[in-house]
Amino acid sequence: MESRAGWSDPFVERVGQEVRRRRQAAGMTMQQLADASGVSVRMLSHIELGEANPSLVTVAKVAHALGTDFASLARQTRPGTLVVDAPGTATGIWSSTAGSHAVLSAASTLRPSAALWDWTLVPGDSYQAEPDPPGSEELFLVISGVLTLIADGHDDTVLDAGASARLATDRGYGYRNDGSKPVRFVRVAHVTA
Question: In the prediction, which pLDDT does 138 show?
Answer without folding.
Answer: 95
